[in-house]
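Support reply, case 0932

Customer input (verbatim):
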Amino acid sequence: MPITIAPAGITGLLLAGGRGARMGGADKGLLQLHGESLARHALRRLRPQVGELLISANRNLADYASLGARVLPDEASQAFSGPLAGMAAGLRTCATPWLLCVPCDGPWLPLDLARRLGEAALEGGRDAAIAVAGGRRQPVYALLRRELLGSLLDFLRGEDRRVEAWLRTVGFAEASFDDPQSFDNINLPEQLEALRAPR
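Our regenerated output:
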């Protein structure tokens, strides 16, 4: 049987700290889909897979706190620096060996994301694992060992803010998923408007 990581050993982190530039500056995690925020949709699927939940956010902190998770703003020097700043806040705070990161605008994330990323990381002997679907890497859907914090802070002292660029410096495993639509992100107003029934 594959080696797995128990949910209690994983902290979930919802990344909601961006500027929402492609959404006209809207706070994407709080945009409504079928009567609920995108953040709530994502958390509903993430919650059963992890122990504690954290949310990386830089505005509307009370609204995010009302979703039942501890809210972490970016460090002042890294505010709105992209997902890596949120990941750093999560790694700094989490009390479990692993941190599972997901974006706030991905409301259909797989219900077996944590298990499969954990299996990939352990089988590959890596401190990080990311999802791959339809031949495309999804580096923001990442499982990270807590000890990677030092490496990430060193990387953030440079100018590159690409998640995959940092992950390449530490090495990562990949877990393949059959349904690319599970990783669809709502980045544009027209995407949100075009959605029909929930999955």
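We compared this against your earlier run and they match. Two observations from our side: Residues 113-124 form the longest helix (12 residues). DSSP finds seven helices and nine strands in the chain. Please reopen the case if you see a mismatch on your end.
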